[in-house]
Amino acid sequence: MALDSKVPKGPIKDKWTDYKNHIDLVNPANKRNIDIIVVGTGLAGGSAAATLAELGYNVKAFAYQDSPRRAHSIAAQGGINAAKNYQGDGDSTYRLFYDTVKGGDYRAREANVYRLAEVSANIIDQCVAQGVPFARDYGGLLDNRSFGGVLVSRTFYAKGQTGQQLLLGAYSAMNRQIARGKIQMFNRHEMMDVVIVDGKARGIIARNLVTGEIERHSAHAVVIGSGGYGNVFFLSTNAMGSNVSAGWKIHKKGAHFANPCYTQIHPTCIPVHGENQSKLTLMSESLRNDGRIWVPKKKEDAEAIRAHKLKATDIAEEDRDYYLERRYPAFGNLVPRDVASRAAKERADAGYGVGHNETGEAVFLDFAFAIERYGKEQALIKGLDQNNKALITDLGKKVVEAKYGNLFQMYEKIVDENPYETPMMIYPAVHYTMGGVWVDYNLMTTIPGCYCIGEANFSDHGANRLGASALMQGLADGYFVLPYTIGDYLSNDIRTGTIPTDTPEFDQAEKEVREKVDFFINNNGTKSVDHFHKRLGKIMWNKVGMARNEKGLKEAMTEIKALREEFWKDVKVPGTADTYNEELAKAGRVADFLELGELFAKDALERNESCGGHFREESAEEDGPQKGEAKRDDENFAYVAAWEYKGEPAKAVLHKEELEFKDIELKQRSYK
Asked: What are the residue boundaries of the FAD-dependent oxidoreductase 2 FAD-binding domain, all occurrences included (predicted)?
């Protein structure tokens, strides 16, 4: 199958407008006769469900949580990007487009990224109209802050809880449509499979997680907005329920899975603190606006901190290495996430880490300078004594608390240290996934009538997502892109009528789902689901993690396959299938992770270059000012890797979507 991205012709700045001018539409009276299933009700799925229902379609929305308000989007902290140039610092649609393509290490589709930048400004207006309480400056205008990989302030935020506020906006829009009967909401329902009829996605099989009942649901189109797959590593910043299963189910029915090796390691997370830990906690990248990252210059100081013989505050200023500011003077602490993460790993590997575990896997994020700076500014404004250190500290803390208070509170509760008085300890952790289901310009997968939006698709972020762009992409897809493009497809279905569920295709799909559920309940194994998930996570982190090499990737593929075979023989799922059974739900999700993990390693092995979040040790700059930085190979790897399912992950077939760069020059990234 040849991959057709369906990117419109013409100048990039006109593509989206011209495209909308010429696509087929469904008139309002006909929308009432068309059904759409939306799987996932986070920012992408929630905004899509609300908008499609507002337009007049009949929507069935599915969430495995007890409410859309519990979608993992709620955990996003720092903000949402938009090219509104409120700061007057030179931002524009083109600059957001450029920063996103460059930040993604030139591995994104130009046309999609430009459209994302173009509609970004509309998102802010939409959310303000919904009542989202964005931060405002002294004059009452919406405030902005900066994030990594950019030289402007374009990030709109609501303290450190932007995702929560945006999700509540989408949820309120959904609730209005639920009350009108335009959205049927299925909470505590998990999609178990997609149903293909005559080559088109025409419904899903869902399981009621409370009663165990297997249900058939039909529609004229199916939209997947089920988030990312970071939990393939077991430990990640994702909610523990986040999974790949909806995307993986459609992959196994014909949707290509693209760039699975593109996974983002977030540089500012609370370090791992024990073997029994089940997830990691993110500290927002927004903290890098005011926090300075450092490690001791002397190894003996780092060793003393690890041994609890010295504290961070004991290290004199001249004995601190602000390594990001030293290595990347132009961007400093605000380099992109992949660059900051690798730099932290390099310092820890070299023996300068300050964590209290054997490996010292932590660096400091220090707010003392920001507290002093803000304190002096406030003292000057209020006409107070700028030489009174206690007063300056108190005033500065209040400013920092107003900007980041809930984040500092979270840190103190988890680590039991006061970050106003001692630097935070942070270290990189698995966060966002740039890979996902391949989609064309319309956001349609390689299965006709099956769409994929938000983090679940292979995204507009290339090989590395810039901070505050996840919320932007999810809401752009749901509010402003999919509602147009899906109409072009559904215009052919205005006379189709309701899709029946008493057909051989639904029979077969339900049969397969029941067989898998019965297998898990009846398998007489001895090991828990978590036992296998943790072992998978260790293989992934050690051999497919922040740095990868040919030997490790080949070993990972062999080990994951063996682990998967052991899982199917020896997994133990307690309880029954006809009641709420979290272990049963988890078993199905981990089964999918065990297949994805191998494809992930295969994709990383195939891509013998370094780009963004994918760092191959064999492909690093060997000398010059860029020594040690990721080295892309544009001649051989300027493509999207889209994998077709052929049974075993090792047998997956690679399809390449060649990437063209007509509006941005293709060159090695530099943040120095």
From this structure: 35-471
Q: Which domain CATH number covers 587?
A: 1.20.58.100
Q: 326 Cβ partners below 8 Å, 6+ apart?
A: none
- Which pair of tokens denotes residue 399? 């400013």
Catalytic positions are: 337
Q: What is the pLDDT of residues 242-289, one digit of tens each?
A: 999 999 999 999 999 999 999 999 999 999 988 888 999 999 999 999
Residue 651 CB contacts under 8 Å (≥ 6 apart), including other chains:
none
CA angle 222, 223, 229 (to 5 degrees): 125
Cα–Cα distance, 272 to 356 (Å, whole number): 10
Whole-prediction pTM: 0.97
SS3 of residue 64 by DSSP: coil
* Distance from C-alpha of 109 to C-alpha of 298, rounded to nearest angstrom: 44
Q: Which amino acid is at 114?
A: Y
When divided into structural domains, the chain yields a total of 2
Determine the structural domain holding residue 311 and report its residue range: 270-430
Alpha-carbon gap, residue 235 to 344, rounded angstroms:
18
Residue 178 within a domain: no
Contact 473, 117 (CB under 8 A): no
Burial profile 303-342: b = 16 or more Cβ within 10 angstroms, e = fewer:
bbbbeeebebeebeeeebbbbbeebbeebbbbbbbbbbbb
Whole-number Å distance between alpha carbons of 153 and 285: 13
Q: Which pair of structure tokens corresponds to residue 25?
A: 């539409």
The pLDDT tens digits for 410-435 are: 999 999 999 999 999 999 999 999 99
β-pair type (653-658, 263-269): unpaired
Q: Between the CA of residue 172 and those of 15, 43, 48, 478, what are the distances in Å?
A: 32, 12, 13, 15
What is the spatial distance between Cα 313 and Cα 300, in angstroms, rounded to a whole number?
15
For tokens 């075979």, name the residue.
565
